[in-house]
Design a protein that fits this description.
Layout: E1 2-6, H1 12-23, H2 27-36, E2 43-48, E3 51-65, E4 69-81, H3 90-104, E5 109-112, H4 119-125, E6 129-132, E7 135-140, H5 141-145, E8 156-157, H6 160-171, E9 176-178, H7 181-192, E10 197-203, E11 206-214, E12 219-226, H8 233-240, H9 243-246, E13 251-256, E14 274-278, H10 281-286
Parallel strand pairs: 4-5, 12-13
Antiparallel strand pairs: 1-2, 2-3, 3-4, 3-9, 5-14, 6-14, 7-13, 8-10, 10-11, 11-12
Helix pairs in contact: 2-7, 6-7
Length: about 300
């Protein structure tokens, strides 16, 4: 018999095993989730014959739609099925059961960021639609070295609370996902595993924030780089000059909600990123599916 239910603390060993089998993450990475964000009700499991076969964690976020409202939204994360049980439709049953759980909590929306392109089809078959996009900008260290401008040195480490305040001020006019402080604390922990972090700064045009997470020795991903549109390429270049100080690398990937003037290496095809499922018919009807929303911090 299959049962979908909120987890209990006794499920943690099985959850950790599934997580590692599915994603290959280190113990320290998994520890960060259980130390900063985990509560039993924040993981939903599918149980068969008394054994956990599939699971998903979820972040309690807010879908902010300017001029329309703010909606509680469950962001699905670490959706995993035991390798021995794949191909049996368990993940779809898990998502359906999770929907019922979220409805019982009065949550009208569910979001997720598929881990790879093929999974967009899987989530699409389970009621999700494309909604969130991200603009990828790439910057090489050699490009910075060709610019003889001193860095502004504006960025400083930020607490999750401070980062969240700056982030919300920047995104107030954009449909977006808002993260609570404990979710941002989880992200900060992920960043710290690779000498990254959350940063804020006061640039000439206004406040800015960025989230730096190391991918490998050469690449740092700014999972979010929120900076006001610059008045000149010179000011932009001086902000970029601070990147080697706060996140040393040979290459940086900058993820942003919208293009900035004179960006280097902008990929103008925003592509697929995050998906949305509306559990409330009123939200489904009220949301303009031609609108591009911003999810930002994919916990990838």
């Amino acid at each position: 018999m299959l049962t979908v239910r909120p987890s209990v603390p006794e499920d943690i060993p099985a959850q950790r095993e599934l997580w590692k089998l599915a994603f290959g993450d280190s113990d320290s990475y998994i520890d960060n989730f259980y130390n900063t964000y985990y509560r039993p009700e924040r993981v939903v499991v599918l149980e068969e014959g008394g054994a956990v076969r599939s699971m998903t964690a979820w972040f309690d976020t807010t879908f902010v739609v300017p001029g329309q409202g703010e909606y509680r939204a469950a962001y699905l994360y670490a959706v995993a099925t035991h390798p021995d049980c794949r191909g049996q439709g368990l993940a779809g049953k898990l998502l359906a059961g999770a929907d019922e759980y979220f409805r019982s909590l009065g949550i009208p929306a569910v979001t997720t960021v598929p881990a790879e392109p093929s999974l967009h089809n899987f989530f699409g078959a389970n009621g999700f639609r494309e909604c969130f996009r991200v603009l990828g900008t790439y910057l090489e260290r050699r490009e910075l070295e060709q610019v003889s401008l001193p860095p502004l040195g504006l960025f400083r480490p930020a607490t999750p609370e401070e980062y969240g305040r700056v982030r919300e001020e920047f995104l107030k006019d954009i449909p977006h996902i808002s993260y609570p402080a404990d979710a941002l604390a989880y992200q900060a922990g992920c960043c710290a595993l690779g000498d990254g972090g959350l940063f804020v700064g006061d640039t000439p045009p206004g406040p800015a924030c960025l989230c730096a997470e190391r991918a490998d020795e050469a690449l740092v991903i700014f999972k979010e780089f929120l900076c006001p549109r610059q008045s000149s390429l010179r000011e932009t270049a001086r902000i970029w000059q601070d990147f080697p100080r706060i996140a040393p690398a040979q290459r940086w990937e900058l993820r942003q909600p919208r293009p900035q003037r004179d960006c280097v290496g902008v990929n103008k095809n925003l592509g697929k990123f995050g998906m949305l499922k509306c559990l409330d018919p009123a939200l489904e009807k009220g949301w303009d599916w031609d609108t591009i929303g911003y999810l930002g911090l994919a916990f990838d």
